[in-house]
Amino acid sequence: MLLFQIFGCLLPFVVGLRTQRSSGTLVDFTDPKVQGHLDALVRMAQSCVIKVRATPKDVRAYFTNSSPVSRSGQCFAACMLEQSDVINHGKVNRELLVHLASLVNGKNSRVVRKLNTVSRLCLDSIEGMSDRCQLASTYNDCLNENMIEFAFPLDIAEEAVRKMPFHLIQPNLPQEIRSSPY
């Protein structure tokens, strides 16, 4: 789930650009500022796809707030969080995560208030972990599970997956498989 780099932070996007499933939208996805952040997130994800050789399943899991199904999926989450500096040398910078989310959502927004609390709780889920991919994936999963009401709209998640350069790492992969949800 969560996560992003506006300026290099994926977590805030994943957290920051969520919408409520029931009533109303927390973020105006037509706002040029929000669109700019989404574009930055997609560029970061494209880089991570190449770096960790992520599959369409890996990226779809990340953008739909599902747990990774493979090691490359875990490492994709790590790449996204590390590029945003939310995780640096195995340490979570919770304050940066909250700050980045506040840039998109506002300092006193419901998203930021909840993220401030949840991000602290999720630190317990990674206590003692040393594997960078597992640590990032576990932290991201905890955020996703506890902030489910702010999940990315599915159409935006699918559009992000369609923009990934899977052909660069799997040149013979047919288009229908690259964009298949499974």
Automatic annotation (TrEMBL):
The UniProt record lists the keyword Cytoplasm: no
CDD domains cross-referenced by the UniProt entry: PBP_GOBP (cd23992)
Keywords: Signal
Gene3D superfamilies the record matches: Pheromone/general odorant binding protein domain
Domain of life per record: Eukaryota
Signal peptide: 1-16
Name of the molecule in the record: Uncharacterized protein LOC113491847
Source organism of this protein record: Trichoplusia ni
Gene name for this UniProt entry: LOC113491847
